[in-house]
Amino acid sequence: MRIKTLILGAGAAGMMCAAHAGGDCLVVDHAKAPGEKIRISGGGRCNFTNIYAAPENYISQNPHFCKSALARYTQWDFIELVSRHGIQWHEKTLGQLFCDDSAKQIVAMLVQELRHAGADLWLQTSVTEVRHGADGFTLRLEREGKPVTVTAQNLVLATGGKSIPKMGATGLAYEIAQQFGLPLIAPRPGLVPFTFGEDRFKPLAGVALPARLSNARASFDEALLFTHRGLSGPSVLQLSSYWQDGEEIRAHLLPDLDLFTALRDQRQQSGRKALTNELARHLPARLVDYLAADWQITGRLADQSDAALQALCERLHNWSLKPSGTEGYRTAEVTLGGIDTDALSSRTLAAKSTPGLYAIGEAVDVTGWLGGYNFQWAWASGHAAGTAIRG
Ligand SMILES: Cc1cc2nc3c(=O)[nH]c(=O)nc-3n(C[C@H](O)[C@H](O)[C@H](O)COP(=O)(O)OP(=O)(O)OC[C@H]3O[C@@H](n4cnc5c(N)ncnc54)[C@H](O)[C@@H]3O)c2cc1C
User: For residue 110, what is the DSSP state?
Assistant: First the structure.
């Protein structure tokens, strides 16, 4: 079988690419259904973009690489597409847009778009061999257990990263990229909870509060959640993408409250009150109990000097923590690193060294923050490659 374009991966980027590639196009995926990550994303409502999406929200060895594709297919283009399909949506927080009803609507929309563009979709199809010669890319596939050979002029790598292998994530895009001599930036889990040894935060599992999580490279003000195994919540997931093994992080609890003034005022009004009781008006009670035991917080408010209150606030504003690691690909929302952008055109996502070869979406070394940014990159990079292929 001969076709113009073969897209590996019917995820966010692959389906978007097919919708723009101009027909004579086949999308293959080893899963039983297309867009499985879209379906489960955003708690089943898919945080499909972010109204503030900009190149600054992406991590890459080359921070300029994502600019071209993001500028030519913006969040407003995707919002227009979603609205055209009659999908109702709302902003949840921080510019994050979600479906009112179900993420399945986004999957159905993309399947409809790719079919409308004249593309075909083969599910439960795996890749057994990739060759390249004068007549293009020849792939041996196994479709529902039967071998099929397909030759295509263009081959698009859209099989994503390694996150959540249980959902069918594989390193196929990396392997094929390497076969064609495209270098990789070492992949590693991103947007992932931190773990701590010795059940350190087990007594706090389920406690959440606003916090500023930071290290030398980044800082995020969002919720912090204690878990049985460590720390999670949006601020933690965001920082994890900027974290290096063995590094300490800092938690500033209650960044929007002038805690020192609040404690000092209360000392004047209710000096007999226990310091821990007053702290529990601002922080979750279980966290206060935990910190009181760990940091020996005792006494009444009246017993505390300004210096003592200041020292306590300083600890709460600069709590130094050293994760032992992360939950890894098992729960990571994304894979950092991937196909080195140096090897690709930022306008078309085509490999510079092999005409007709493209790489898009999470497989490429462009990783977004939490909040709809990763899908926006999938849409934008898929669109860039698709329109280049259409010509
Ligand atoms: C739990 C979870 C929630 C998320 N929520 C959000 C969110 O709300 N907003 C957001 O912006 N981002 C979210 N993300 C990230 C987002 O899902 C990804 O960044 C995005 O799906 C990447 O698109 P992609 O097309 O590159 O890869 P994917 O969507 O992962 O698609 C890759 C496709 O390739 C197929 N494939 C893989 N290996 C092979 C193989 N060997 N052979 C054949 N087919 C193969 C897979 O089955 C899959 O269909 C979430 C991720 C997870 C895990």
Answer: H
Distance (Å, rounded) from C-alpha 250 to C-alpha 252? 7
Q: How far is the CA of 193 from the centre of ligand 1 (A)?
A: 18
Residue 199 DSSP code: T
- The CA-to-CA distance between both ends of the chain, in Å, stands at 22
378 lines ligand 1 (CB under 6 A): yes
CB burial of residue 93 (10 Å; 0-12, 13-18, 19+): exposed
**pLDDT, tens digit (0-9, with 9 covering 90-100), for 305-337:** 999 999 999 999 999 999 999 999 999 999 999
| This model's pTM is above 0.90 | yes
Judge whether 304 and 267 are in contact, CB under 8 Å: yes
Residues 6 or more apart in contact with residue 389 via CB below 8 angstroms: 4, 5, 17, 20, 21, 22, 25, 154, 156, 358
Which residue among 164, 333, 376 is best mutated to probe the pocket of ligand 1, counting the most ligand atoms within 8 A of its Cβ? 333
